[in-house]
Specification:
By secondary structure, the protein is of the alpha/beta class. It has helices at residues 19-32, 39-43, 50-60, 67-85, 97-106, 120-126, 150-159, 173-181, 192-195, 210-217; strands at residues 6-9, 110-114, 135-137, 166-170, 185-189, 200-202. Strands 3-2-1-4-5-6 form a six-stranded parallel sheet, sandwiched between helices. The structure holds 6-O-phosphono-beta-D-glucopyranose and magnesium ion (MG).
């Protein structure tokens, strides 16, 4: 079995608690268009790019919009979303994340971000986490949305490691699927029912370090 040399982290819902802000902004948009969607529906949006999320939401509401109108709607949602995270404090960094990142560094391993978000760099800067990352791959660098493994494959390439040598941390079903398709180890952060395909599912990173993760998944 390959040695584990690196970790790739999703951002929204793994590093920072932004998943809830995405939900609120999309729901506001849907409500303005005259319909609603549930928490369960929202699971299907996690890890999915902005344009693809809008396409799904419009489908749920049975609303048809031209390409040009979709651009305006996606921009409106992003405006609400970025407004809501503008003053996001460091407390929105999820519990256990900083000690965990430190444990990865202490083990001499590399760290990459693998996020669908085009706001990823701004968010990492806002909560002062940029320095932990050796590589950042985000929504500005990929053509395919998760469950396509592109974002993680690019992350591994940027770090100079093979997928088999990386552990991916994800809160989205589609993110776990992307990691597995790319032949990475996958750790799901959240509920077993949603993320059960992963090599390991944890409620959070609290009380875990990378050595314990590796010992558990291998
Ligand atoms: C993912 C989120 O990380 O990024 C999705 O899970 C979001 O909910 C996607 O739609 C794109 O984010 P952004 O910030 O580019 O709109
Ligand atoms: Mg996520």
């Amino acid at each position: 079995m390959e040695e584990i040399k690196a970790c790739i982290f999703d951002l929204d819902g793994v590093i920072v608690d932004t998943a809830k802000y995405h939900f609120v902004a999309w729901r506001r948009l849907a409500n303005e268009l005259g319909f609603d969607f549930s928490h369960e529906d929202n699971e299907k949006l996690k890890g999915v790019s902005r344009v693809e999320s809008l396409r799904l939401i419009l489908e749920w509401g049975k609303v048809e919009k031209t390409e040009a109108e979709q651009k305006v709607l996606a921009a409106r949602k992003n405006e609400w979303y970025t407004e809501s995270i503008q003053s996001m404090p460091k407390e929105e960094i999820l519990d256990g994340v900083i000690p965990f990142l430190k444990s990865v560094q202490a083990a001499g391993m590399k760290i990459a971000l693998g996020s669908a978000s085009k706001n990823a760099r701004a968010i990492l800067q806002q909560v002062d986490l940029m320095d932990y990352f050796d590589a950042i791959v985000d929504g500005n660098n990929v053509a395919h949305s998760k469950p396509h493994p592109e974002v993680f494959l690019n992350g591994a390439e940027a770090l100079g490691v093979k997928p088999e040598e990386c552990v991916v941390f994800e809160d989205a079903e589609k993110g776990v699927a992307a990691a597995l398709r790319g032949h990475f180890f996958a750790v799901g952060l959240g509920e077993e029912e949603v993320l059960g395909e992963a090599h390991l599912v944890l409620p959070s990173l609290v009380d875990w370090d990378i050595k314990r993760i590796i010992a558990t998944i291998k």
